[in-house]
């Protein structure tokens, strides 16, 4: 049994680690974290980093488990987590190329298992981290009020997160105390650029860095001139969750954690290229051709993902009225991408150089 009031899945992942750190800063420890056995050593190293300057070295407590199993692979979660009042569910497969079976097993069935445990221990609030891309390829402005719109999906990742959120909202309709957060594409820290998750826009940077600065070739897909690339830094997502969860009225709500004024795709590409110091030549092409080229580049060790191309002609725009109301006057807001792009690029380039050494 643990006396922790907070339970979290998704540690020591990209968002989970940062959220645990922020909750500890706010005095919410000790925090119990469910960790897959294969990640136990990595999780312990992260615990050691986060508690190096903390008097209570047991402020993060690790419990081996698995969200794909009933009761999360824990013999008696009701007894083990008897004192838990808040449960944060972040664990998921964040991979655009994930296959359908794994996406269902982790993102959909895993979420249902976590919901079952949350109900069994009668939590006061269940915090679920979804994604803006439950929208699929919805043609228009997608708000917090939207979900089941008959949309088609770019990939199994999107569809599985959609189905998982449907499961959460169905329980909320029955009175379950849930709060849903939908980040857009999450990149590194806006102050330091720090990240350990090089996907999304980083594929574009990877392609640039594999070419000479005096002339880099990038391909653009038809329709990208009318699309937006909505990204937010990790610190904004974590700060927003930490702020919103303390507010009365957040139970039962959905919050899209997105940039309310994102850059169009061409301007986004220009910003990345200019920040990296590359002169670029844009080559218009179709997505099938671009996917073929991306696949070939992967074989040569260039970190690009063909599935990411679907976001360069993405028809959906995101609005976040609930989030803007909740964060009004708090000082927490999504910064413009141009204001921190240099830090993202500098960190990624430095990290890449270190890995080459």
TrEMBL record:
Matching CDD domains: MupV_like_SDR_e
Pfam families: NAD_binding_4
GO BP: long-chain fatty-acyl-CoA metabolic process
GO MF term (any one): alcohol-forming very long-chain fatty acyl-CoA reductase activity
Organism superkingdom: Archaea
Domain (Thioester reductase (TE)): residue spans on this chain: 8-241
PANTHER family: FATTY ACYL-COA REDUCTASE CG8306-RELATED (PTHR11011:SF45), MALE STERILITY PROTEIN 2-RELATED (PTHR11011)
Protein name listed in UniProt: Nucleoside-diphosphate-sugar epimerase
Organism from which the protein derives: Natranaeroarchaeum sulfidigenes
Upper taxonomic lineage: Archaea, Methanobacteriati, Methanobacteriota, Stenosarchaea group, Halobacteria
